[in-house]
Amino acid sequence: MTDRQRFFTRTGLFLWLAGVFGAICVLPYVMALTPAVFDAASEQLGIPTSAMIGISIIQSALILGFATFTGLWAARKLGLGAPLVDALIRKEVLPHSAPQIAVRAIVLGVAAALLIIVIELLVFSAVTESLEDEAQLNVAPWKGFLASFYGGIAEEIQLRLFMLSIMALGIRYVVGLVSKSQASSSLSWKVFWIANITAAVLFGLGHLPATAELIPLTPLVVTRAIILNGAVGLVAGFLYWRQGIEMAMICHFSADIVLHMLFPLLS
Asked: Up-side HSE of residue 190: CA atoms within 13 Å toward CB?
């Protein structure tokens, strides 16, 4: 194995293990939100709930492993990736601007979360009330805090590092074929925004299966999922493009802390 391959593998392993940690952290939140899902699956398969949890973790680990290494490969082709993790792996000094950029990512994440709350209260309050009535519970804030690690790490690996990178790489390749020109080694803003918007929409749609466990899917419910979840996705995607996947993770984590822990505490 060459030094470059070894370096790539170490960065990938770091991100993958972080993603698996997030997948484990989200389980208390999921089980509180849709407790019948695990019980029904356990009954259907004839195995204990604890075994179902183990299967869920293994499944998430496999998906995250594929998403991490494939996404990292695509990201490298686009000049993107995980610069801070790379620096840690190489035992290099982090850029002096890293703390300032991290604070900016936190501010953007909190701002996106506040925007989501305002839109939800003004436009989608009826849907939100229906969800709360069907759930018939208030998820404990500590479970929302743990779930934020899944959003901030695992979802960013799947949606930004993997999906956005793969789509951007594919779009750039197609554009090169159509224009009959050699593909640029960098990522143009047009290609990025097409991929970023698409990934954000898919991120919103990805929340619909969980929503469908609580209420019927209507055009309003689908629109809500796309707009509210896509808002964070667009900002996180931009940070990934400009600063690396770590800043996208910080942004997403900050937004989820507001949405899943602080806002439930205050309300």
From this structure: 4
Split at pLDDT 50, 70, 90, the class of 7 is: confident
Q: How many whole angstroms separate alpha carbon 204 and alpha carbon 202?
A: 5
Q: How many domains does the chain have?
A: 1
Q: What is d(CA 183, CA 39) in angstroms, rounded to the nearest whole number?
A: 51
Pick the residue with more confidence: 15 or 209?
Answer: 15
Q: Which pLDDT score is estimated for 120?
A: 87
Longest dimension (CA), the chain: 58
- C-alpha span between 38 and 46 (Å, rounded): 12
Domain residue limits at 105: 3-266
Residue 2, CB half-sphere, CA atoms under 13 Å: how many? 3
Give the model's pLDDT for residue 149.
98
Q: How far is CA 230 from the centre of its chain?
A: 11
Q: Looking at the predicted structure, is the pLDDT value of residue 136 above 50?
A: no
Residue 240 has pLDDT above 70, yes or no: yes
What's the predicted TM-score (pTM) here?
0.91
Q: Is 123 left (phi over 0), alpha (psi -120 to 50) or beta?
A: alpha
